[in-house]
Amino acid sequence: MYDVVGEYARMGIPNQYWEMSILNAEYELCDSYPSHLCFPKAATKDVIFGSARFRSRGRLPALSYFYKPNNSSMCRSAQPLSGVSKRSTEDEQLIQFILQANPNSSFMYIVDTRPKLNAMANRAAGKGYENTGFYNNVIYQFIGIQNIHIMRESLQKLVEVTSSEQLSMTHFLNGLEASGWLRHIRSILLTSLAIVKAMVDEGTSVLVHCSDGWDRTAQTCSLATLMIDPFYRTLHGFMILIEKEWLLFGHKFSYRCGHLNTDPKDVSPVFGQFLECVWQMKNQFPTAFEFNDDFLLPLHCHVYSCQVSVMTSCDIM
Q: In terms of pTM, does the model score above 0.85?
């Protein structure tokens, strides 16, 4: 279904600033990224591989969506391996090339979807976040979407409330509030909206990441793309969006959905939250979508049913 060359061509790529790369054709660059990636034309092979070495699991900044009307772009990545003071000239150059690929803006945003305390803890472990002293003309923003463990606990609390044998409306509403579920959904939606405003209203490019770049990053990049481009709100476009941003960019469906006999701490409703965010948007703007609950509910079901093999895999090797 997903034609990577055709899809990027629909966005207007290749163009004066961006091109398709096959450096990951054999997954030597990053084994959890697609085989075809888009980078700024100015980025050399050495810069791209150098940036990958400086990013968690090799997940370097790569194009997610190009907004043709003003040349702004949304890229996604994992956190840098910066620790307290490490740096990578190649990674810094790649960020500058992304900035320069948008001639209409003199700066760009790096949106870290994690709470700042979490990112600081990762820095102590040799990872962390970009030092803005090394990255020129960059505005750094921490957002504060909670991690997979908080989200799992939130869903467990919500399930306990709805499973009560003596459920009243008051009990349900109090339990819903105590679970924090809707606060988390709101946080994801607001982050996605902030990305859209930066790209569409300010004409500024954005790099989005969390820790490994396959959970919160997938949520927010997908939702921002959905808000910007009506094509992805069609049935065909929505399926392409899931394949592009979730499957090919390495979301761990088997781990997050508990399909494998692995650590239960890896289980989290990341994709389910994405679908709820889409559902919330659909309820507010029903005529903006080509699909409704009759599509979203079976989709959520089959993520867990294991009857559709494509929803239990990704490009991770």
A: yes
Q: How many CB atoms lie within 10 A of CB 286?
A: 9
pLDDT digits (tens, 9 = 90+) for 137-176: 999 999 999 999 999 999 999 999 988 887 899 999 999 9
Q: Among positive and negative, which fits the CA dihedral 161, 162, 167, 170?
A: positive
C-beta of residue 254 within 8 angstroms of C-beta of residue 274: no
The verdict on whether 314 is a catalytic residue reads no
Residue located via tokens 């960059």: 138
Residue 140 sits at the vertex; the CA angle it makes with 114 and 245, to the nearest 5 degrees, is 55
Give 284's contacts (C-beta < 8 A, 6+ positions apart).
none
Chain-centre distance for alpha carbon 262: 24
pLDDT tens-digit series, residues 194-213: 999 999 999 999 999 999 99
Q: Active site residue: 210, 221, 257, 277, which one?
A: 210
In the 8-state DSSP scheme, what is residue 25?
A: T
